[in-house]
């Protein structure tokens, strides 16, 4: 029964708008995502929704992600607003979703470094690398699991 439900969910996802250009998105290239945004068939919110749905669908099987960014869709909406107002991308990584290892600080998300005792350690600012990526328009969608202390 569980397998049937999982297949049904996958079919629903595949039939949604999110896979209108799945051939392009399956390449996972910055240029492919930017092409979708420029053509106007998709917006940043659609792109982020697509990747979050994929992550939520497959994470129970591969167990690679431990914390999802609850603000990812809000950040996508803000980028959509920016693009519609200025008709330019915020940066070279405009609306590019990414997952970061759990030993890199992301404001508002726990940074555990694979140590359970640190699950409540929530930084109030981004690591410099995250700050640079966000300034270019990239969006953190989740943090990836890792071995304890990155060993």
Automatic annotation (TrEMBL):
Coiled coil: none annotated. Gene3D superfamilies: Amidase signature (AS) domain. Residues 1-21 form the signal peptide. The keyword Signal applies. SUPFAM superfamilies: Amidase signature (AS) enzymes. InterPro entries: Amidase_dom, AS_sf. It comes from the Eukaryota. Residues 46-150 form the Amidase domain. Keywords: Signal. This is Amidase domain-containing protein. It comes from Rotaria sordida.
């Amino acid at each position: 029964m569980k397998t049937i439900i999982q297949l049904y969910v996958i079919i629903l996802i595949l039939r949604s708008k999110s896979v209108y250009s799945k051939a392009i998105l399956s390449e996972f290239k910055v240029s492919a995502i930017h092409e979708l945004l420029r053509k106007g068939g998709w917006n940043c919110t659609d792109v982020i929704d697509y990747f979050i749905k994929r992550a939520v669908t497959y994470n129970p099987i591969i167990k690679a992600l431990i914390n999802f960014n609850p603000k990812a869709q809000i950040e996508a909406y803000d980028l959509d607003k920016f693009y519609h107002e200025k008709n330019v991308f915020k940066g070279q990584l405009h609306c590019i979703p990414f997952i970061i290892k759990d030993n890199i600080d992301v404001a508002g998300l726990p940074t555990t470094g694979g140590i359970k005792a640190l699950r409540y350690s929530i930084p109030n600012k981004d690591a410099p690398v995250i700050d640079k990526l966000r300034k270019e328009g990239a969006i953190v969608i989740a943090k990836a699991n890792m071995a304890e202390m990155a060993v």
